[in-house]
Amino acid sequence: MKSVIAFAVLALASVAAGQAPPQAALTLDDQFEKAQNINQYRGDVLILLYGDRDGMPANKGLGEKLHVHFHPTAQGKPPAEANRAPATPVPNLPQGMRSPEVRVVPVACVGKVPDLVKNIIRGRIKKDAPDTTVLLDFENKMKDQFGMKEGEPNLVLIDTQGRVRMKAAGELDAATYSKLLQAVDYLRKEGAR
Questions:
Q1: pTM for the full model?
Q2: Res. 12: pLDDT tops 70
Q3: Across the strands, what pairs with 46?
């Protein structure tokens, strides 16, 4: 298994240093040409899984694994139904507090291509993922803002306030995957209201 080349837990380091984690700002079109701003996920924990064409199969597998971990009733269901499965509630929340969702959103990092190629890519993704929002990065925004290891899965973990709290590049080993799950759980508790 390939090792993780970059892994940063920004949550605790920033808080310990008395600094707020950096805000994420990003708007990308989905495969249906609808602009999607990540601010729409405020109040929930967001995991952006991104990569180039060679990294997408690993991202797809990781995305499904993460979704089922936090939405166990999605297991074995078709994508449209699995996307509606509720997240497991945060344990031990006081009555009346909202349990933040976990949103896993794939981003296809295509790079700058002619409009004809964009249309072909959109059509292919519409056909392959008609029930799942896939963001399309034709301007290298993900790579410029978060960095990217080509040919590998990449992820950014964003808290309920829209702040970047973790980044990872490369295939996740068991220990790193476990740290990711712990970080998501921590951010869900932190963001409960």
A1: 0.89
A2: no
A3: 103, 158
